Amino acid sequence: MKSMSSNIHQHLLLQSNSCKTRKSSSRIFAVAVEPHHNLMQNGAVRLAQKLSNLVHHHLETPIPNQLQYTDWNLIHKANEVTPVSSPKQNISSKWREIHGSTDYDSLLDPLHPWLRREIIKYGEFAQATYDAFDFDSFSEYCGSCRYNRHNFFDKVGLDNTGYNVSKYFYAMSHVDVPQWLERSHLVDTWSKDSNWMGFIAVSDDQESQRIGRRDIVVSWRGTVAPSEWYEDLQRKLMPVGDGEVKVELGFHHIYKSKSEFTRYNKSSASEQVMQEVKRLVNLYRSKGEEVSLTITGHSLGGALALLNAHEAAVSIPDLPINVVSFGAPRVGNVAFRDELHHLGVKTLRVVVKQDFVPRMPGVVLNESLKIFEEITGELDWVYTHVGAELRLCLNSSPYLKRGFNPAGYHHLETYLHLIDGYKSSKSSFRQNATRDVALVNKACGMLRQELRIPECWYQFEHKGLVRNSHGRWVKPSRDLEDIPSYHNEEESMPCYA
C-alpha cells in the first residue's frame, strides 16, 4: 500500500511538472466568498472595478487533455484506504522552538514535520469555528454556535485533539464595519446584537505531556468575504495606548465593542477572552505547571488574534505567546509590529501566494513605502505584517485546479491541504501527505474534476430541514443543551490537572 501511494503521487507530480502552461490575460474578480457565505453581487462588482485597475493577474492554466495519462482510478482506491492523519509525535523536547522561541529559524524551509502537524492542529481549530457556526440568516439562532462547548469537538469531528473547550466568547454584530458579522432576519432571535466568535480550550493531561506544557488555545472565527476587504479597510488606523502604535479601526471595534443593553456582550470579546485566559494561567501556574498561550484564526480571525496577543502580552508577564494565523490581513502599523516584537509575541503567518486578503489593507500603499522614510519620516498610517511567514503556492499541489478562483484561494481548507503537502520552497508536493483531499471542496470548488469530489459539499442533510409529525418540512428545534444560554457560558471548566 505504501508503494501504491508513492506511485500515485509520482504520477501526479510528473503530470504536474510536465504540463505546459500558458499565460492568460488579466481577469476581473468574479464572485468571491469565504466559507459558508453568499456574496452580495454589488460588492463583487465594486471590488472588480477597483482591484482590476490596481493589479494584473497572469494566471497559469493547464492545456486541455493533459490529464489523460494519470490513472485517477488508482488514486481513488488509494485515497479510500489511506489514513487521514499522521501519528502524533512527542514534541516536548522541542516545544519552545515549535512555539516560536527562535522565530522559526531553520524550521520553515524545509518545514519541520513536528511543526507541520502543530500548524495543522491549530488550523483545524480555526476551521471548527466555521463548521460549528450558524450562518443561516433565517434561523432564530443565526450568529450562534450550533453546539454546546461540552460536545463541541465531537460534533466537528475533532474528538482526538486532546483539548477541552473551556469557554465560548462573543462579539458585537452592529459594529461600524458593515456585513462583517451575521444578523438573523427574524425578529425573535437568540440575540440581536451578538455573534459567537470562537472558543478557548486547554490541553488535557495526555496532550500536555506530549507537547511539553499546558497549552491554552484561543481560536477566533473569521467572517469576511474576500470581496469586502477592499471596501471596508482603507487607511482607517486608530491609536492603541500611548505612542505611535496604531491598528485598523474595524478590527479594534469588533475586539473591544460592548453594550449594557445586550445579553452576551455586556463585556467585550476582549474582556471575555482575557478574563478566562488569566483564570486558566493562574490555575495551572498555581499547580506548578508550565503554561503557554496559542492564539489562532483565519482571515478576520487572524487579525483579531494579533490584537488578542498584544493585550495578553501586556497583561500577563512571562507568558509564552504564539500566534498562528492563516490568510490574515495586515493589522497595524510599523510601531504595532515593533511593540509586539518587544513584548516577545511570536507570530507565524501562513499565506497562499495567490490569496489577496493578506495584501489588505493597503493593496498599493503598504509597507513598501518605508523606503521613503528618510524623506517623509515614519509613515504611521502604513500597514505592515508581523512575524515569520510560511508562504505556499497553489501550483505546488497536483490535486488543485489551475484557473481563477479567489474564494478558493482564501478558503482555509485550501491552506490546510497545501500545508500538509509542503516540504520546502524547492520541493514538490510531498508523497506521504495524508490529510483528506476531499476537505478542500467543503465550501469551494478547487479540486480537479477527475477527483470526482462535488463542490461545496459540506452542508446539513436537507440543508437543515426535517419533517415534523404532520409531514411538513420545517426547521428543527435545537436540543436544549445546544441552545445559547448566558448561564451556561458562566460555568467554570472542570480541572484537568
From TrEMBL:
GO terms for molecular function: phospholipase A1 activity. SUPFAM superfamilies: alpha/beta-Hydrolases. It comes from the Eukaryota. One of its GO terms (cellular component) is chloroplast. Residues 217-363 form the Fungal lipase-type domain. It holds the Pfam family Lipase_3. The keyword Transit peptide applies. Its main location: plastid. Keywords: Chloroplast, Hydrolase, Lipid degradation, Lipid metabolism, Plastid, Transit peptide. Gene3D superfamilies: alpha/beta hydrolase. It is found in: Plastid, Chloroplast. The keyword Transit peptide applies. Signal peptide: none annotated. GO terms for biological process: lipid catabolic process. Belongs to the AB hydrolase superfamily. Lipase family. This is Fungal lipase-type domain-containing protein. It comes from Aquilegia coerulea (Rocky mountain columbine).
